[in-house]
Design goal:
Radius of gyration: 14 Å
CATH topology: RbsD-like fold
Structural class: alpha/beta
Strand order of the largest sheet: 2-5-1-6-3-4
CATH superfamily: RbsD-like domain
Shape: globular
Amino acid sequence: MLNKIPKILSPELLKVLCEMGHSDRIVIADGNFPAQSVGKDAIVIRCDGHDVPSLLSAILTVFPLDTYVDKPALLMEKVPGDTVETPIWEEYKKIVGQFDERGEKAIGSIERFAFYEEAKKAYAIIATGEKALYANIILQKGVVVDGE
C-alpha cells in the first residue's frame, strides 16, 4: 500500500499508468465495450467491480491530461437517432474540471466507430462494470512536470 494513492488504483493499473508516456492513450470502458476484441494490441486491465467515474477521478489524481491537444479526453458519441440519456457525461465534466483548468473544454467526442478505431491504438483499455450507456472515455496523457 502507498500513501496518497487512491485505493481503487490496483498495482497493475498503477504500473500501466507509469509506463505510459506523453501522448499515450488509455480507454476507460463501460461494461458493454468490447475491450478484449478492440484491445488485441493493448493491455487490457479488468476492473469489473468498479464504475467509470470512480476510476476516472482516481486516475486523474496521478495522470496529467495532455496540454498540447485541445481535447485530451474523448467520449463516444451517441448513434444518430439513439434517444438514450447520458447523464454520466455531466459527471465526467465535473471530474475533469477538478483536475484540468480547461474543465469541460478538455472533453471532445467522436463518432462511435471512429472511437473504436482510436481505442485500437490505445496503450491500455480498462474494462469496468459500468452500466451506463455511452460511458466510454479515452484519456491522452500529458507531460509530468517536475515537482508535481
